[in-house]
Amino acid sequence: MPVDYFYIRDDRVNYYLSVGGSETKTVYYMVRAVSKGRFIVGPASADAMYNPELRSYNGAGKVVVE
């Protein structure tokens, strides 16, 4: 899925993209570990800009970097 714009910060990446139709869309991203340890990962979130009823929060968990 093409991304219209993205904004990279130290602790997150914001993606802005256009979606249409009723089919399911999937967005993948990759992260790079820079420190060893155990971390809690918050969920990825997606919100429709003009329709607050359309949203998704998914993927929270734990990560161990050795």
From TrEMBL:
<dbReference type="InterPro" id="IPR041246">
    <property type="entry name" value="Bact_MG10"/>
</dbReference>
<protein>
    <recommendedName>
        <fullName>Bacterial alpha-2-macroglobulin MG10 domain-containing protein</fullName>
    </recommendedName>
</protein>
<dbReference type="Pfam" id="PF17973">
    <property type="entry name" value="bMG10"/>
</dbReference>
<feature type="domain" description="Bacterial alpha-2-macroglobulin MG10">
    <location>
        <begin position="3"/>
        <end position="53"/>
    </location>
</feature>
